[in-house]
Amino acid sequence: MKNKFDRVMDYIDDCIFSLYDDDDIRKGIRDLIGYDSNSFNKCMQVVTGESLTDYIRRRKFYFASEQLKDPNNSKRILDIAIECGYSENAVFTRQMKFYYGCTPSDIRNGLAEVPNEKYHLIDFCNETTNTRVQNIIKAFEQGQPISSVNESFLTELYEDSKRYQWDVDVSFALA
Questions:
Q1: pTM of the model
Q2: Per-residue pLDDT reduced to its tens digit, 26-83
Q3: Contact assessment for residue 100 and residue 61, using Cβ atoms and an 8 Å cutoff
Q4: What is the mean pLDDT of residues 121-150?
Q5: 76-108 in b/e burial notation, b at 16+ Cβ within 10 A?
Q6: How far apart are CA 144 and CA 137, in angstroms?
Q7: How far apart are alpha carbons 13 and 2 in whole angstroms?
Q8: Residue 121: how many CB atoms within 10 A of its CB?
Q9: pLDDT tens for residues 130-143?
Q10: CB 119 within 8 A of CB 9
Q11: Per-residue pLDDT for 129 more than 60?
Q12: How many Å apart are CA 32 and CA 55, to the nearest integer?
């Protein structure tokens, strides 16, 4: 089973264009994991440095760019902009240029591409971020005593994972 963070990332992708607006996505997050979007937004900002609103906007641009570069898609740029929640093509274009330095026409003409920047919690638990836990485990495996500081850190990590119903990876990433 996926952790709650990754389930939310999948949920956002699955319903990015099927729900009416970002507020509906936020309500869906609450229903999915039991946290209101403000709580999840705080968690997301700690883990990614990005707000939930900005992340949703960037995912919309990514999926819009996939439609734009599809040669079999005959939708006008305005139609795609409306699907993304913009009532005017100019605002959509300006926002895409702000986030990615290109216009929808650039993408349609193959001159630019919007990267797939979907977050996965596993991305935050790499060698750089989990060195502390790795060192504690390595010391334990070598028969070295675990200091009271390390023991309290591991205990706190475990207790937080139970209290907030995150798996240990999520708790560690937040720590």
A1: 0.69
A2: 888 888 888 777 878 887 887 778 899 899 989 999 999 999 999 999 999 999 999 8
A3: yes
A4: 60
A5: ebeebbebbebeebeebbebbeeebebbbebbb
A6: 10
A7: 15
A8: 23
A9: 555 566 666 666 77
A10: yes
A11: no
A12: 18
CA-to-CA dists, residue 169 to 42, 94, 116, 124, 133, angstroms? 17, 37, 23, 9, 11
- Confidence (pLDDT) at 128: 45
* Tokens 């990015």 -> residue: 16
Residue for token digits 């734009």? 68
21, two tokens: 């607006």
Phi, psi of 14 (to 5 degrees): -65, -30
Q: Rounded to whole angstroms, how far apart are CA atoms 54 and 114?
A: 15
145 sits in which H/E element? none
Nearest-angstrom CA–CA distance, 36 and 171: 18
Q: Which amino acid is at 49?
A: G
Q: How far apart are CA 137 and CA 105, in angstroms?
A: 52
